[in-house]
Amino acid sequence: MRMRSTVSRAAATRLFWENGYEATSINDLTREMGIRPGSLYAAFGDKRTLFNEVIAAYGRSPAGEFIWAAMAREPTAFDAFHRILLDAAAMYTDPGTPAGNLLCSAAAADVDVAVYMCDLRNASVDTFEKRLATARHEGEIPAAADPRRLAAYFTAVMHGMSQRARDGATAAELTDTAELAMAAWPAR
């Protein structure tokens, strides 16, 4: 079922992003969303279903789609990965949102939620690997380059940047990290 308003969705998203899944209580959610617990349960059934909806909406937002936008927009894999890391530096430190990336910030001890979040994060590795395999096939990176290892590397850099943003790193610091990471790009 759809949330009643974008204000309610934004409130739930902010709570999960700032506090994570486990530390966000039903009381926190209903208070910030401006609804009673019964309304939340009637609309979603439980906190997990609400969380799933928040994650899905995040994936359709600019914060969730910037990777795929860069992949589609940039002419080369190098340009795409450079753009992704620079956009991450800016987005992860945007004062209008909680620091970091929701998919990294909302980690959970609940096994089902943890597996769900792990699968979503690992989807980035798969997406990166496909783009890098194409780059290797087209001669943009050397034939000896391993797309899976490179994908894992760039994913780790992004996750690290997310955590650094939560720890107070500035956009300038994360931009420096992005530039340093691009220095690891395999030479042709």
3D structure, described in words:
- The protein is mainly alpha-helical.
- α1 runs antiparallel to α2 (26-33) and α8 crosses α9 (147-166).
- 74% of the residues lie in helices and 0% in strands.
- It is elongated and about 60 Å long.
- It has helices at 6-23, 26-33, 37-44, 47-60, 62-73, 77-92, 102-105, 111-137, 147-166, 171-182.
- The protein is built from ten helices and no strands.
- The model has no long low-confidence stretch (mean pLDDT 90).
Chain-wise SSE layout:
Layout: H1 6-23, H2 26-33, H3 37-44, H4 47-60, H5 62-73, H6 77-92, H7 102-105, H8 111-137, H9 147-166, H10 171-182
Helix pairs in contact: 1-2, 1-4, 4-5, 5-6, 6-9, 6-10, 8-9, 9-10
Protein name: TetR family transcriptional regulator
Keywords: DNA-binding, Transcription, Transcription regulation
Domain HTH tetR-type: 2-62
- What is the number of strand segments? 0
Judged by helices, strands and strand pairing, the structural class is mainly alpha
Helix content: over 70%
What distance lies between the first and last C-alpha atoms, to the nearest angstrom? 50 Å
| Number of alpha- plus pi-helical segments | 10
Regarding quaternary structure, what we see is: single chain
Order of helices and strands: HHHHHHHHHH
Globular, elongated, flat, extended or rod-shaped: what is the shape?
elongated
Radius of gyration: 18 Å
Poorly predicted spans:
none
Q: Residue-averaged pLDDT, rounded?
A: 90
Describe the sheet with the most strands: none
The fraction of residues in strands falls at under 5%
